[in-house]
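Researcher: I'm comparing several assemblies side by side, and this is the next one on my list. It has 669 residues spread over two chains. Same procedure as the others: predict the full complex and return the structure.
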Amino acid sequence: MKNTSIFILSAFIALTSCKKVITIQEGAGLEDWTTATHSATNPDYTFFSDNEVRRFDITIDEAWWNIMQTHLAEYNTSSGPNDFSDVTPIYVPCNLNYNGINWYNVGIRYKGNSSLATNSNIGKLPFRLKFEEFSDDFPEITGQNFYGFEELSLSNNYNDQSFLREKVASDLFRDFGVPCARSVFCEVYVDYGEGSTYFGLYTILEVVFDSAIKNEFGSNSGNCYKPDGDGASFSSNTFNISYFENKTGGSDFSDVENLYSALHSSLRTSNPAQWRTMMNTYLNMDDYLKYMAVNFSIQNWDTYGRMTHNYYLYNNPATNQLNWIPWDNNEAFDEGKQGGALSIDLSDATNEWPLLSYIIADDTYKAQYKSHLRNFIDNHFNSSNMNGIYSAYSNLIQSSVDAETSNYSYLNNSSDFVNAISELNTHVSQRYSIIDAYAP
Amino acid sequence: MKSIQIIALIIVLIFSHTVHSQTEVIVRDLETWSSVSASKKFESNAKLELEQSLRLYDNTSKVDQYFTNLSLELPVFKFASITGGLRYIRDRDKDDGEYENHLRFNADLNFKHEYERFTFKYRLRLQTKNELGYSRDEGDYLRNATRVKVGVNYNIRNWKFDPEIAGEIFRESGKYMISSFNKYRLTLSTKYKINKLMDLKAFYRFERELGVSYPLSTNIVGFNLTFNL
């Protein structure tokens, strides 16, 4: 009898107290959830259309919105006048509606550097969406993505009154064979407790270490670095591996260190052919030279050569080569700031930027660079082609631009947009002449 | 036989497109909390206590945390006292199993009054906790909690195991958090005086999360051995 009582008591305790795990189907209880829209295995690239302007409606709880603003104020306080903040903006949950379909408890945060730090009076700020960020709090959204994209970057076309720079630059890079994130125009509406507000016309980009490298290289399992800071110039004076943040989580930086060692090898002057072979072992040089041709043709100055940011390095496991991936191209097609864009012959690239100065000093690489320049202006970056692209895109986005309001726009008046498009047409004409003379 | 295999393959292929992935969520667990304390009561009725504690989770099979707690209670009136506490915690990350170092401070306001054989106890606790070794730039901010506890003890005649029941609710707050009630506890306990030097306290505690889709309910069995110096 005593043993029976103990057994019954033990069984009762076991049934009512012990660990219980329940299984939750992805999207459980979420009305709009489907596999194709919310948990697709492969990204649906039809979203990145060149012929449509998308529309995102974002709803953020007022309390979370206020927290975002408080954190943004701290971000701006922590960065000096000519410096970028080390603080990463925080994610808060939001609801995203696209084409009448809802995505639930999506993580949203501000992103960017100068576009965040210097525009506190304009509400049109850049965002990052991460669809599974809050799956710990909301297990039913585990595996949530947006047509296969786990993250999306919402660029606010900062400092670009044409709205085209981000999109056209990424199109040109990719059309010329340089890996680059895809992009699409998107009207963004945000409701943070005061009704839906038009935040303006954005350019949505896929995130490099999410889908872009998987799409370009067939996998995203290699090291994907987002270098940022003085240590990322590859200069012997400042090189520091700690400035190479690995977005895919690995802790072996030997690929970057090998590239640095190869770049600074004495073979560069004693045996250039062997040096080039060594360089190509660690960096996909043909793609890199294509990148250089596009980047310096379009005067994309806010990156390597003037600034130690806005590029990724991906180690493709299939070749064990690092691949150069441009990022954040909203300042392209312009003479630029911070000393301006480098000249097309790169004569002003100092040894503080050895991935330019050492490359252009090598006759073989220089010849390849010029060959790519010629190819680029013959087939892509010429007035005949670009005027058509600028015209088509400006017509596509005209109504979205016109709808912008002063609190959420970088336009001062309605003619700014027209003038900016005109400047792009002038720019391509001038650049063609310069490049044609340098690479006949 | 071959046709059956083909049909089976077709069925697998069809259903493989409709099978949804799943995630597992723990909604109930059994924990044990055990501790040993040394307590010294002074002539002024101030009480200094040092406690070493170990908490196990996952059906009491894994270390959740262990900590050292130092507290000082000062009487203010006959019915009221204040307590200050400092706790150094070695908290095991449930994902990677690595131990994190945390420091917690708490300040309590305690009230007590008796009615016949009942003793009513009230406690307001303000606590703040921070992970050591991480800065605000790395996203580490103070996590604060306001806790309100109400309990009642009943003195049973000629019985050494007087029962006490208590309820406590937690409100969590902090920078860049939305303040909310995030859990509550219900506790049934008793204290047995082994001898003049030692007390043994045993309790059963039920804890449940609030404000989440799939709240975790935790059943806690606890023991505390106190040496009265």
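Model: For your comparison table: Chain B is about 5% helix and 65% strand.
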